[in-house]
Amino acid sequence: MSTSDGAAARYVHRRPVYDLVVDGQSINVAVNPRLESLSLTEKRGADADELEIILKDHDGKLAIPSAGAMITLKLGWLELRDGAVPQLVDKGSFKVDERCWSGTPDVLTIRAKSADLTRAFRTRRSQTWSNTTLGAVLNEIAARNALEAAVAADKASIVVDHLTQGRESDSALLARLGRLHDAVATVKAQKLLFASVGAGETAGGQPIPPATITRRKGDGCRWESAERENYSGVTVEYHDRGSAQRRQVTVGSATNPKKLGRTYASERSARRAAEAHQAKQKRKVAKFSITLAIGDPTLYPERKVTVSGFKPEIDHAEWLIVETSHRLDGAGGLKTSLQMELGAPPATTA
To answer: Rounded CA gap, 161 and 137, in Å?
Structure first.
């Protein structure tokens, strides 16, 4: 057998597969011959994940689903060999919130968003916490929304001197706390998750394995770096109750700091905000996006990535996924697009 024949023998062909369930009923058989495209966008933080399904309605027999219908999605690959079992990744549950029928040709478009955010979670309310911990606050928010709190230990132990929720939804408060503490703050699979951005582990402490991407896997890529984002540090004002004066705290160098507009109630909260903003600044100094010719549903926001085959500035950096987009088309193709920011800057050479 020749070398090329051997390589061909080792190569296993496969096709993308999915599993769609609507209100507890599988719709795979009905969808398969009608699928125009299926797109899933996964986002970091409190923004909802979005699912879009476009179906052909050439015979007019498609029923329009009801608003609020629940869709669960699994996405993956099936190797084309005897006895192969589909390798599916659970992508979560989504609630239908937009339906569109158009023609000609007649197509039905269904859009849904991640279904973990209840109406109560988005209802404005007022509350105050004093002399407590961030973990206690997040546990209370989770409990009143029938969620399980999964808060990283280093975040749960943070002291909260004073926190006011003034005419603000629990969803908005969670997002604000995420920004303040440079944390991924979101709700997934009925869990309120709160953990450091780029920690490399889940809020429950389980490691997230890094991924590796080579140039030959890509179908298009883009790297950009903005010097204007490269501040030397961050300066934040706070109100000193003892002297009844405004004071400043700077994290990093004071040579060229970025000054935040908000005034905080204490030095501790100001320093925390400055540290969080500086960490965010460092990640945004460079961005890298790539579309994989062969999609990979195992990639998701907050997973670390190393790359090779590009420029040294790209290869020597550690990247962190911010957003993923998976698109499956009716012809049988599956592609994954990644938006990434710096997890760690490129290593310097002597």
So the answer is: 12
Q: For residue range 227-251, what is the model confidence (pLDDT) as tens digits?
A: 766 688 899 999 888 888 889 999 9
Q: Are 61 and 55 in contact (CB under 8 A)?
A: no
Tokens at 149, concatenated: 């709190």
10 Å CB burial of residue 325 (0-12, 13-18, 19+) is middle
The neighbouring-strand residues paired with 16 are 77
Q: What's the pLDDT at 117?
A: 64
Return d(Cα 302, Cα 288) in angstroms, integer.
Answer: 14
Which has the closest alpha carbon to 203: 176, 174, 172?
174
Q: What is the pTM of this model?
A: 0.85
Calculate mean pLDDT across residues 311-333: 92
Sign of CA dihedral 175, 177, 183, 184: negative
Q: Left if phi > 0, otherwise alpha if psi is -120 to 50, otherwise beta: which for 74?
A: beta
Residue 3 has pLDDT above 50, yes or no: no
Q: 162 CB contacts (<8 Å, ≥6 apart)?
A: 128, 129, 130, 265, 266
Q: Tell me which of 331 and 62 has the higher pLDDT.
A: 62
Q: What whole-number distance in Å separates Cα of residue 271 and Cα of residue 238?
A: 9
- Residue 210, token pair as written in the block: 């890094």
Mean pLDDT, residues 44-54: 88
Average pLDDT score, the chain:
87
Distance CA(41)–CA(36), nearest Å, equals 17
Q: Torsion-angle region of residue 31: left (phi > 0), alpha (psi -120 to 50) or beta? A: alpha
What is 290-348 written as a DSSP string? EEESS--TT--TT-EEEEESS-HHHHTSEEEEEEEEEEEETTS-EEEEEEEEEEEPPPP
- Output the CA–CA distances (angstroms, integers) from residue 12 to 8, 15, 84, in the order listed: 8, 10, 11
Least confident span in 18-22, 40-44, 118-122, 189-193: 118-122
At 48 the three-state DSSP class reads coil
pLDDT at 255: 85
